[in-house]
Amino acid sequence: MQRPAAAATAAAATGDTAAAQQPPQPQPLPPYYQLSLPVYSLATVGRDGGSPTMNLVTYASPISLKPRCYALGLYEGTLSRENMLATEYGVLQLLGEHHAPLFQLLGRTSGRDVDKLAALEAAGVPVTRREPDGIPLLADSCGWIELRFSSEPANYGDHEVVICEVTGWHTPPAEELAAAGRRPLYTGHLRELGLLP
């Protein structure tokens, strides 16, 4: 298979100027872009209980049943990553489709620049603070999972990957979820809304 840049160079070398001047064709995305993955929000606090924040997470996957463990990707430079590396735990909240309007706030802004809890409150999104650690929780999530480090983080480019043990969880009663019309948010839904490629 000849790559577009190589094809243009070859065309120019053979004098095919029309082919050489054509704009490069858009390349198909990798196959995994066809997948629809759960969308989470990772809630964390700093070592002293300060700097509470949340961000958007799609790089999270269960990897074992006994013990229950997750692999979690932490994006470099984020306050959530800094908090979790300091405390070695956080709460992974399963977002619902009704949280899609929070994509920009949770996924495209930094907790260093924006007080996300204040922004959520201003938007009318109910947030509670868990006792005794003060971790902020979305009161209308589809459930949450407490994760604690069970391995040292490993760097993979723009993400730190950590293996975490599930040390607690909460799932709202099915009738509560049904009555509120809460359905888990997936990346496929974000693509339909034009928020992801």
Write structural notes for this entry:
- This protein is 25% helix and 28% strand.
- It has one domain (34-192): Pnp Oxidase, Chain A.
- Mean pLDDT is 90; it is low at 6-12.
- The longest helix has 10 residues, at 4-13.
- It is globular and about 65 Å long.
- It is built from 7 helices and 10 strands.
- The strands form 2 sheets. Strands 1, 2, 3, 4, 5, 8, 9 and 10 form an 8-stranded antiparallel β-sheet that branches. A two-stranded antiparallel ribbon has the order 6-7.
- With 197 residues, the protein is an alpha+beta fold.
Write a short abstract of this structure.
By secondary structure, the chain is α+β, with helices and mostly antiparallel strands. 25% of the residues lie in helices and 28% in strands.
How are the SSEs placed, and which strands pair?
Layout: H1 4-13, H2 17-20, E1 40-44, E2 53-57, E3 60-64, E4 69-75, H3 79-87, E5 89-94, H4 103-108, H5 116-122, E6 127-129, E7 136-138, E8 144-149, E9 154-156, E10 159-170, H6 174-180, H7 187-192
Antiparallel strand pairs: 1-2, 1-5, 3-4, 4-10, 5-8, 6-7, 8-10, 9-10
Secondary structure: number of strands: 10
- Overall shape: it is globular
| Low-confidence blocks of residues | 6-12
Mean pLDDT: 90
Run of helices and strands? HHEEEEHEHHEEEEEHH
> How much β-strand is present in the residues?
25-35%
Helicity, in percent? 10-25%
CATH fold annotation: Pnp Oxidase, Chain A
Distance between the termini: 25 Å
Characterize the biggest β-sheet.
Answer: 8 strands, antiparallel
Structural class designation? alpha+beta
Second rung of CATH, namely the architecture: Roll
Radius of gyration over all CA atoms, rounded: 21 Å
The tally of structural domains comes to 1
How many helices? 7
Give the CATH H-level superfamily: Electron Transport, Fmn-binding Protein, Chain A
Biased composition (Low complexity): 1-22
GO molecular function, one term: FMN binding
Protein name: Flavin reductase
Region (Disordered): 1-30
